[in-house]
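Field log, afternoon session.

UNIT: design team B
ACTIVITY: writing a sequence onto a fixed backbone
BACKBONE:
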């Protein structure tokens, strides 16, 4: 029941926002905004698709990864140890301490 109220309330808020936006912003400006946003979304999808094929930092790796130094499997759920890992993906091996990217390519190795 509470979800129904939340959904109906959000629909009412969106209708009011739509009316306010249509009064305040002309249609031609909204068309330009739509074209810019749609172009940025398309560019982002294109970057991810090309990055996945070429295996660069923009891509997505959905396969399991093993440590390139010791071969131990890495967890599916990451806990990033650095800002680079949080932003672009990657792991630090719990056994040998080496750092790798999301494609299991060695970045640093500690002995």
């Amino acid at each position: 029941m509470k979800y129904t109220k939340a959904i109906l309330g959000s629909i009412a808020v969106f209708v009011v926002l739509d009316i306010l936006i249509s009064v305040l912003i002309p249609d031609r400006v909204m068309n330009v905004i739509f074209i810019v946003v749609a172009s940025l979304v398309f560019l982002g999808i294109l970057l991810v698709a090309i990055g996945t094929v070429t295996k660069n930092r923009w891509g997505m790796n959905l396969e399991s990864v093993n440590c390139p130094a010791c071969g131990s499997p890495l967890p599916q759920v990451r806990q990033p140890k650095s800002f680079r890992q949080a932003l672009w993906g990657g792991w630090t091996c719990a056994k040998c301490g080496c750092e790798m990217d999301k494609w299991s390519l060695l970045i640093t190795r500690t002995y």
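LOG NOTE: The first strand starts at residue 91 and ends at 92.
NEXT ACTIVITY: expression trials, pending approval
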